[in-house]
Amino acid sequence: MKGLMNKMMLSCVKATEMVEKKKLFGLTWKENMQLKAHNAMCKVCKEYEMQSEIIDSVLKHYLQRDNIIPLNNEKLKLKIISKLK
Amino acid sequence: MNDTANPPATITCWVEAHTDALFAWALHKTSSLETAEDLVQDTFLAASESFEKFKGNSEPKTWLLAILNNKIAEHYRKLFRHSEMHSSKDPVFFSEEGAWQPAQMPQQWGSEHPLDDADFRKILEKCMNKLPAQWSAALHYKYLEEKKPELICQELEISDTNYWQIVHRAKLQMRKCLEMNWFNKQ
Predict the structure, then answer these.
(1) Which of A63, A61, A42 is nearest to A53 (CA)?
(2) Rounded to whole angstroms, how far apart are CA atoms B26 and B32?
(3) What is the interface pTM, i.e. ipTM, of the complex?
(4) How far is CA B7 from CA A82, A83, B51, B61, in A?
(5) What is the reported pTM?
């Protein structure tokens, strides 16, 4: 029985991998059950799942924001114009 | 003046008008002055070569930005392909048995994450720049545009499994860096 339990239980590295797989591609029914069972008992991995969500939203906001202030670069303009000729 | 009448003169005008905005965007996306300058230059060279494809029914800036975004994607594809998959310097997050290394265990986060706070942005940028090249390329690529993960795997030429494992490692390191430098800063 213990052997079977060990086979069914995910390790923390697998559980956190499943968190990322879930976000990108979705999980199979079995993987989903395994992740739920693991996170029900493992506070640390549960915390990881929450933080992973926060990291996604801050990175997305940061990298996709469109209110970038133009940066003056006269040297670059001259360089490009000379290359275009 | 008709925009299509004199391509070189039009492109020169565009360089004057749009370089600053394109450069700022490229710098934001790559965090490298040199790379940003190269990408903007390549954008105008490409625009000049395919000038007849510009129909004038979109804003020149929109058209140029689309070209630039393709160049940025290409830059990260190259970076991804040409960097090492694993290095001995990669941090170790878990034990052999797959348990958390004590130093890597997520702690409860204290502070807020004010999205538009300049100091928070600096920390984010710093943490992104500390990632190994391949992980950083994968993360940047992930958030370039709203691309489907399946398409990203195709373009980076990796399997689904490879991709989520790289994202996993990159996020473990980002998590730790943000925790130490922002959320639970001592």
Answers:
(1) A61
(2) 8
(3) 0.87
(4) 15, 15, 7, 15
(5) 0.86
